[in-house]
Design goal:
With 583 residues, the protein is of the alpha/beta class. It is 40% helix and 14% strand. It contains 21 helices and 15 strands. The strands form 3 sheets. The chain has a 7-stranded mixed sheet. A 6-stranded mixed sheet has the order 2-3-1-4-5-6, with helices on both faces. It is globular and about 75 Å long.
């Protein structure tokens, strides 16, 4: 793009870094000053929460102030109010000899007059609450959805950038109400994102996960699943997909079908909207692990120098050899773990689906089943058992010698090694090859400026970079990591590892430069339905092997010694509480 990208000041913390450094100061006109409201649409158990959490994590990592507004959470909070008057709570039954509620297994007994109910059922809603013919319950649901939308708008007016309305929004009536409300706001664009899933296997797995949601805490899983399936049938009666009604109102929408296998985008015009759609086009649910490690110790590491292009030290070579052996072992172990997980899940779903027909699974297998449900369960079981770890495995390195040398010991018949310039270490400009003590002596002002704001600080000299620049540089790498269907090992550098882990583990960018990631550690991020699962291994030189360590304490944040009131942004990312020095 134009020269202004390279001419921006080294500090840009007065505005979001993504807009400032790439599109600011009149270099290119965009609509990035507009706010964006993302409204989710879709039936329950169609992956909306999965999409919402990933999208929020990506946009926050890019520097946009992003927040999720979940209607279900508000609806549960409203359970003890108007919903009680609608008579929509599960009955509080204490017919058992244990004196516990038969609905949720919580302690039974009638609540004293004027006191809150003693049972968790009193703040939950059974499937009847979602019956489209239940007018009183429908009114409550619509009221809660609009109240959450008002909260969303107030947050945007206070300085937020992207707000996500996380709800089913499955009727034309509801969507028209949201469109109408947003018309009175200026500088706010609307994007509907509808998640459609026709894959019965995925739907059944999602229903299993739903039995562990806050709506069903303490409830027998079979009872919970039956209630949720009844709820789903109620939603299906009223559900209308986005189409001509919304197109007549000239709205923007995107349909994600079967977790990205098919994507339909309509009338996408804004910059923020295009960022959202592009990201959502690159999702998949294949079992895989993203391994992230720094290169083995280099000669410059041993001397305490930053940057440069030094070769590995002898201890770095030992690490490289141990790393290839470890990945060989973990690649096979993970395949076994996935197969066992699939087997257990298939058996669980088969058991619950055919519980009313003992032996139905075995009958279906022999072709003599009289139960359509049993046949469906068997098909799911066979599908899951066929779902194997993708045989491909790639190793990505930077274009610097110390990472390429770390990857030299991987068998090229098994691993495809790629050298990617975007993974190069943050470029320190004039400070390349210096120690921090030398920088403090020769460039004291620069040294002090970096201590004040490590994220936005840009090293002096031609090509000097900041962490904000690194995020932009890694954007395409992140999208590619979301797209690929097999495991990857990234052999990279400290700033790159910090930036990548900040994305996968939802660590706020303000904490990114202060993450302690020493040499000799492997960070394994496994995508799961409700987030990325992290495991960490540490190299033990005298064993010449790796040992697993507690992941909660493996990533530590080194907070500034003397934080000032200006350190925190006025609207901190909702991700900020996710990580602290304590965990």
């Amino acid at each position: 793009m134009g020269g202004m990208f390279f001419g921006t000041p080294r500090f840009a913390n007065s505005v979001p870094f993504f807009r400032f450094q790439r599109f600011g100061h009149g270099d290119v006109h965009t609509d990035s000053d507009h706010k964006l409201v993302v409204v989710m649409v879709g039936l329950p158990a169609r992956g909306k929460s999965y999409i919402v959490k990933k999208l929020k994590r990506y946009l926050s990592w890019l520097g946009f102030q992003t927040k999720i507004f979940n209607v279900g959470d508000r609806r549960r909070l409203a359970g003890s109010g108007d919903a009680a008057q609608a008579g929509q709570h599960r009955p509080h039954s204490t017919g058992s000899t244990t004196g516990r509620c038969s609905g949720c297994s919580s302690p039974g007994g009638e609540a004293p007059a004027g006191k809150a109910p003693a049972c968790q059922c009193e703040t939950r809603h059974p499937s009847a609450f979602f019956d489209p013919d239940n007018k009183q319950a429908k009114q409550i649901r619509e009221q809660v959805a609009l109240e959450v939308f008002e909260d969303l708008l107030r947050w945007l007016q206070a300085g937020g950038q992207i707000a996500i309305h996380d709800a089913t929004n499955s009727t034309i009536e509801r969507r028209k109400a949201l469109i109408s409300r947003l018309k009175s706001e200026t500088d706010m664009n609307l994007l509907f994102v509808e998640s459609i899933c026709n894959d019965r296997d995925i739907i059944n797995r999602n229903i299993k996960l739903k039995t562990h949601s806050p709506d069903y805490v303490g409830i027998d899983p079979d009872v919970a699943e039956a209630d949720f399936r009844a709820r789903l049938r109620n939603y299906e009666r009223a559900y209308r997909t986005i189409g001509a009604a919304e197109e007549m109102l000239d709205v923007q929408y995107c349909k994600i079908i079967d977790v990205g296998k098919k994507v339909i985008a309509y009338n996408i015009q804004g910059f923020l909207e295009s960022q959202v759609v592009f990201y959502l086009m690159n999702m998949n649910l294949e079992p895989r692990v993203i391994y992230i490690t720094r290169h083995g110790e280099s000669e410059d590491n041993a001397a305490g120098r930053i940057g440069g292009d030094a070769s590995l030290s002898p201890s770095g070579v030992a690490y490289a050899k141990a790393l290839s052996r470890f990945i060989d072992r973990r690649r096979l172990e993970f395949a076994v773990e996935v197969e066992e997980h699939n087997r257990q899940l298939a058996q669980s779903i088969c058991s619950s689906t055919t519980s009313s027909t003992p032996g139905a699974c075995s009958e279906a297998e022999s072709g003599t089943s009289h139960s359509a449900a049993a046949a469906d369960a068997l098909r799911l079981e066979q599908s899951l058992l066929r779902r194997r770890v993708h045989p491909g495995f790639e190793v990505w390195t930077s274009m610097l010698k110390r990472t390429m040398e770390t990857a030299e010991y991987f068998d090229p018949q098994i691993y495809r090694v790629k050298n990617i310039k975007s993974l190069n270490e943050i470029y320190a400009g004039k400070c390349e090859g210096m120690t921090y003590s030398e920088i403090a002596r020769q460039y004291p002002d620069e040294y002090e400026a970096r201590q004040l704001d490590k994220f936005y600080y840009r090293y002096p000299g031609i090509g000097g970079e900041s962490y904000a620049d690194v995020v932009l540089r890694l954007q395409q790498v992140i999208v590619e990591l979301e797209r690929i269907r097999h495991s990857v090992l990234l052999v990279t550098h400290r700033a790159m590892a910090r930036t990548l882990l900040a994305y996968f583990m939802d660590i706020p960018t303000t904490h990114m430069p202060d993450m302690e990631l020493p040499l000799g550690y492997i960070y394994a991020c496994e995508p799961r339905p409700f987030g990325n699962h992290l495991r960490v291994w540490r190299y033990v030189p005298h064993l010449d092997d790796f040992e697993e360590v507690d992941s909660a304490s493996a990533i530590r944040i080194r907070y500034p010694q003397n934080p000032t009131s200006n350190d925190a942004p006025p609207l901190p990312s909702p991700a900020e509480p996710a990580y602290s020095a304590k965990n």
